[in-house]
């Protein structure tokens, strides 16, 4: 009787363990080389597909000429749309930058007699000044590739070491934050000559340190969304079945805008960490983030420690009750993770988990403030707060 040969299976198991034990940096470089080698074939296949899509059934010279002209016009149209989108993103970024400058001027001019709020506005002033300094150096970038197997975990941007040489300073580096407007969307984890790979906040491996904010900053984030909706609806009169219905919608939006006027002061409350729900080789279809470790057990410069359940001030006769977490709270970066600068928006709380028996922290779910990251085309790269070589 023929003996079973287990040698191939044994070699396969050894090969599997060797591949799984490759260091992450080496694996990243191997992945980059593989993508660089295969990318030209993708472009060729795309060109072949476009050619076959418009290939004439008849082979007369006139039809061939018309086909080529149609193809040329399609390419020109696609290029123009891409340029318009880039310009639109840049203009929106400039508008947000101006808003930040106006906010900085307003905070600087604020006069507050109360010692706590005087120090509070001083910290916001310094924080905003640091953010403005980073945003002045922001480098616009375009998404050039997304691997379907890690669509919600990472993508590639068209900026790299060459751009650092042209600028004369390091902007694109490992741990460079990547933003859309005032919202964090990820961090650069690998830099090549003309491209870089970004790890998204929806990936489970990226864990930013965040804090709940309630007040004018929370209202301002929602106000920007309402104003965007207001502007877009003005262009879409076809969505309303009558003038009266259109008037009612705009009146409701005006009412919401007035209610969200950033007049109240901010309160910085529970601190914790966020992580995504996507992993490599698994495409996530939502921008939901999960939070863990949220509490306010220790006092800091933003305020006193508070009870986990009631929100009362610990070790004080103060009767002020302020829940440390609420649905709708804005989650902003703290800067304590050493990667993301403090004060950038990350997500809005949508669900708060029940406190477990004997538990000392809350868990929550939140939705990213940057919007739909699955269809993102443009972003801005900020200089790293801490530089680390690839």
Order of helices and strands: HHHHEEHEEEEHHEEEEEE
Number of helices: 7
Overall pLDDT confidence: 79
> How widely separated are the two ends?
56 Å
Sheet bearing the most strands, described? 6 strands, antiparallel, barrel
| CATH third-tier fold name of the domain at 111-215 and 265-381 | Thrombin, subunit H
CATH class of the domain at 111-215 and 265-381: Mainly Beta
Main β-sheet, spatial strand arrangement: 1-2-5-4-3-12
Name the helicity range. Answer: 40-55%
The global form is globular
CATH architecture designation of the domain at 111-215 and 265-381: Beta Barrel
Task: Name the poorly predicted regions.
Answer: none
Q: Cα-atom Rg, whole angstroms? A: 26 Å
Beta strand %: 15-25%
- Number of DSSP-assigned strands: 12
Q: What structural class do helix, strand and pairing data support?
A: alpha+beta
Structure description:
The chain has 390 residues and is of the alpha+beta class. Among the domains are: 111-215 and 265-381, Rod shape-determining protein MreC, domain 1 (Thrombin, subunit H); 216-264. 41% of the residues lie in helices and 19% in strands. The chain contains seven helices and twelve strands. It has helices at 7-20, 24-53, 61-109, 115-136, 161-167, 216-234, 243-259, and strands at residues 139-145, 154-157, 177-180, 183-191, 196-200, 209-214, 267-275, 288-295, 330-333, 345-352, 362-368, 378-381. It has a six-stranded antiparallel barrel with strand order 1-2-5-4-3-12. A hairpin with a 4-residue loop joins strand 4 and strand 5. The longest helix has 49 residues, at 61-109. The chain is globular, with a radius of gyration of 26 Å. The mean pLDDT is 79.
